[in-house]
Amino acid sequence: MQSRTSNLNVHAKEFFPASENFLLSPRDEATHQLEIWNFSPKDRKLVLSLLYEWYSDRTLNAVVEQWENAGIAPSKNQKEYIKILCYNVEGWGTRALEAIDLVYKIQASICIFTEVGELWNTCRLPHFNTFYQKGTNKNGGVCIAVGKHLKATRIEINIPNTVVIDIAGLSEPIRIIGIYWPTSQQRDLDEILPYVVDGTILSGDFNATVKEWNSPITDRRGAHVKEWINESNLDYIPLTSNSSKRSLRNIDLSFSNMSTISSEALFFGTSDHWSIMLSCENIFFDTNSFCPHTNWKAFEAVITLLQTFWMREQKKNSADEWYKQYIRFIAAVKNRVTHRKERDKYKPLLPAYIIEKLREIRKVRN
After folding, report:
1. 48 CB contacts (<8 Å, ≥6 apart)?
2. Are 200 and 175 in contact (CB under 8 A)?
3. Do residues 135 and 159 make contact, with C-beta atoms less than 8 angstroms apart?
4. Distances (CA, A) of 185 to 137, 160, 180, 316
5. How far apart are CA 253 and CA 207, in angstroms?
6. Closest among 316, 340, 318, 336 to 328, alpha carbons compared
7. Phi and psi dihedrals of 167, rounded to 5?
8. FRET label pair with 337: which of 91, 192, 255, 322, CA 20 to 30 Å apart?
9. Between the ranges 55-64, 74-83, 220-229, where is the mean pLDDT highest?
């Protein structure tokens, strides 16, 4: 007896029920899908512009090449002069937020934090590499933080309260030495003398006063520091004010064997020390004033809507050839949905309400 299925062709093409949009063109069906996804008018307009370009009567290579070249314009590089923040935080754990806010407010690329304490690692400075050296007690310790747009190399030393960092990626390389010298402890400054090279900036809390360096008197430690600085061929970088809040003393000192470096006291923070900004007028790095903003929602939509095409292409080409074309297509789509926007000079890292709370605390403590 012949079965009902004996006349069926086993080699027939696959059959799928037609969708409700079987009368729509691929472009119209994609447009309909965007409406179902409830895209915003702005996102829908961007995706549709890509679909119109895709379904135009051009070759695959022509469309992809157009997307690869979209938005490409001569980059406008600008020189950013180096700013170094020096701040005795008297405990990083309690002043990390205000220090981070200050770093981004003045656009510092390098930071020297002294007396950071044991909680130095509780709140890391975003987009910076941080180098720490413990102190001789729980309240000491020094951190140097370097922006990730610069290359920082640590010079390994075994001296408490001292960090030495070489920095490249600038118009000329520099060496940063950050130190903290507690009041009641002895220190041999000659230990760091071998690390003083051309292009060195030495800064930190010396707890030493020198009359010629904006303090009322020269104390015993100050006389020793001044003599050592002269022998080391370093020059004092004058500060616009004293660094201590509790007295007229200037105990946070900076030195260098480079010229055109200025030092400014920033009347900011809840520590007993004013923060200090060093500005290097002849040392800079190049930066692009525009940063990319990618519409990832539009990117995902285009990849999804055109996935059927690429599934069919898999059957036409070798795996290697298909892969090369597909990754080129993905990169081109990303470039097409990316626009360049001029970056803000200062964008607060912290929410506005936290910054306001910090200001209130500073008013109370100061």
Report:
1. 31, 34
2. yes
3. no
4. 10, 12, 11, 78
5. 9
6. 336
7. -125, 125
8. 322
9. 220-229
Structural domains of the chain sorted by starting position, each given as residue range(s) with its CATH number in brackets: 25-52+291-366 (no CATH), 80-286 (3.60.10.10)
Cα separation, 330 vs 71, in Å, equals 16
From residue 357, give the alpha-carbon distance in Å to each of 131, 179, 245, 361, 363: 29, 31, 21, 6, 10
Question: What is the number of other CB atoms lying within 10 angstroms of the CB of residue 280?
Answer: 23
Task: In whole angstroms, give the CA distance from residue 98 to residue 87.
Answer: 11
Q: Contact 303/334 with Cβ under 8 angstroms? A: no
Chain-wide mean pLDDT for the chain? 86
Percent of the chain at pLDDT > 90 equals 57
β-pair type (77-88, 110-114): parallel
Residues 149 and 141 sit within 8 Å (Cβ to Cβ): no
Looking up tokens 């500060």 gives 239
Q: Which residues of 111-132 are buried (b: 16+ CB within 10 A; e: fewer)?
A: bbbbbbbbebeeeebeebbbbb
